[in-house]
Every structure is written in structure tokens, then in C-alpha cells.
Amino acid sequence: MDGIIKIEDVSYNYYGKIPALLNVSLSIKEGEKFAVIGANGSGKSTLLQIMNGLIHPSSGSIFFRDNEVSEKTLKDKEFLRFFRERVGYVFQDSDVQLFCPNVLDELLYGPVQLGLNESEAMDRAFEVMQMLNIENLKDRPSYMLSGGEKKRVAIGSVLTMNPEALLLDEPTNGLDPKTQCFLVELLFALSEAGKTIVIATHDLSLVDELQCRVAVLSEEHRIEKTGSAEDILKDEDLLLKVNLVHEHIHCHGPLAHRHIHSHYLFHKH
Ligand SMILES: Nc1ncnc2c1ncn2[C@@H]1O[C@H](COP(=O)(O)OP(=O)(O)O)[C@@H](O)[C@H]1O
Ligand SMILES: [Mg+2]
User: Fold this and answer.
1) Protein residues with CB under 6 Å of any ligand 1 atom
2) Element holding 149 (H helix, E strand)
3) Which of 92, 231, 244, 269 fits as disulfide partner to 227, beta carbons 3.0 to 4.6 Å?
4) Residues 95-123: tens digit of each pLDDT
5) Which of 18, 47, 50 maximizes ligand 1 atoms within 8 Å of its Cβ, making it the mutation to test the pocket?
6) How confident is the model at residue 268, as a pLDDT?
7) Which residues crowd ion ligand 2, with CB under 5 Å?
8) Class of domain 3-102+162-261
9) Where do the DSSP E strands lie in 70-109?
10) Residue ranges of domains in the chain
């Protein structure tokens, strides 16, 4: 099997009744950049949480490097550690992720959990702070950080674990354009360093910039299509169907004219 993360026929319902995923199968290759896109409520966050073993499928299975990730397998301490060391998760809401008194402690937390000694942990924390350009924030508590700074720290707290795969839920949400650019460059750098990157997003410009492979979730919580960013972004019917763009009809002089609209796709005449 060549997928680093494999999802086989996974369905998920909240409380046994609210459907969030239906018969989803995916195989994400090692080192690949992969995006799960879909309208609000389509199941993106649920799928990412399943990939990180935070919740478990109602039916179907998930594998990381051919090891099943389930409630049962994660009870094994050795496997839990193996999995947690290798797969990092960046929550949509950075406030959920940041809980230490200051930024430096936030970055030390992971390596210390992994059993690194103090000086090794410090080295990792400083290396990551440099990479993310946040050394000047090291003594700040999270309530004294902007949204963009919090996102960098949240990503940093995962990178200090040096994971093989990174799952990011709506990473550009609420970020200013400069931080968004920084994030795209960072994701490229991490990808070039061989990390597997999985994002959940409805930001089509991010998908375009990252040139990733894409799985499209429908509002019925199924995978509607998978393909290259280029294939997906040019499929207007698909994007309309899954509600990632909408259609405008308006008039230019005597001509009625339709075009599709998103926050990304350019208005074509
Ligand atoms: N904690 C929860 N409890 C109940 N229903 C939920 C919960 N989280 C998500 N859902 C529902 O599951 C579906 C998929 O949600 P989610 O995975 O958050 O979608 P997305 O991330 O694409 O917006 C939605 O109908 C949503 O309302
Ligand atoms: Mg979500």
C-alpha cells in the first residue's frame, strides 16, 4: 500500500443521527499536498479529526502507514506515541490549541512530552521560532497575540514535534493577506522538506496557490470528485453543485450575462 493516510469507506454521524461523512475513501501519498474542500457543513473538519484519531468512524476504517487507527489501537501506548509523534494537527481556532502561559512554553510542550531533554527541547523551540519569525513573541501570553501571530504559534507548537504529516483545518481563515502569504510559503517549504500536508478549506485561492491534489466533499457529505487543483478549479459545474461558488446573472447594456462568483475565481466576460 502506498498511501501514508488511507481512509476506507468511512461514514460518521454525530450522536448516531447527524450525518457528517458518507462512504468516504481516500488515499493520501507520502509527501503530497492534499486539500479537502467543500461548503460549510460538508464534513471537512470531521474528516480531518478522523485522520488525526480525535474521533473514530461510525463505520469504515482509517490507516496511517498501514496501521489501523482506531479507539482500540490507540489504547496501545506505544502505537499512540508512534502516531502522535508523526501526525500533527492545527485546529481552525488557535485558541483551542494554545494553553501554556507563554509562547516559549507552548513550543517546549511537545518536545518535552516526547521525552527530549531540556536543551534539546530548547533547540527545537528556537529553531521553529526562527523559521516562523516569532522569536520576539517568546515571552508573550496568547491573549497578547494577534490572530496571525496565534496561528504561527499554533503551527509552531506542532512543528516542534517534527511530524511527518501535518493536518491543518481552515488554515487561512481570518488571516490578513500578509500572514496568508507567509502561510503558503511555509506550507511549500514544509512540503519540500518531505512532509505530507493535508488542509481542509473552502478557500479556492489557497488550493490554487498550493497546487495540491484535491478531494471535493458535497453537501451530502460524499466525495464528489478528486483531482488536481487545476482540474477541480476549472470544473465550474462541480463547484456550483457543491456550493463553493455561486452564479450571478446581470446585464451589460442589452445583454443578460451570467458568471460564477467566488471569493477567488475571477469574473470572466
Ligand atoms: N460537535 C458536533 N455535534 C453535532 N454535529 C456536528 C458537530 N460538529 C459538526 N457537526 C455537523 O456535522 C456536519 C459536518 O460538519 P463539519 O465537519 O464541521 O463540516 P465543515 O468543517 O465542512 O464545515 C455538519 O452538519 C455539522 O453541523
Ligand atoms: Mg470545518
Assistant:
1) 14, 18, 20, 38, 40-46
2) helix 147-159
3) 231
4) 999 999 999 999 999 999 888 999 999 99
5) 18
6) 45
7) 44-45
8) alpha beta
9) 87-90
10) 3-102+162-261
Segment (H or E) for 226: strand 223-228
Alpha carbon distances (Å) from 184 to 32, 63, 171, 212, 234: 15, 27, 10, 12, 21
Sign of CA dihedral 77, 169, 166, 183: negative
Closest ligand 1 atom to residue 21 Cα is 14
d(CA 240, CA 262): 10
pTM above the 0.85 mark?
yes
For 221, counting Cβ atoms within 10 Å of its Cβ (0-12 exposed, 13-18 middle, 19+ buried), the class is buried
Cell of 41: 457543513
The C-alpha angle 209, 214, 217, rounded to 5 degrees, equals 125
CB contact set of 113 (below 8 Å; sequence gap of 6+): none
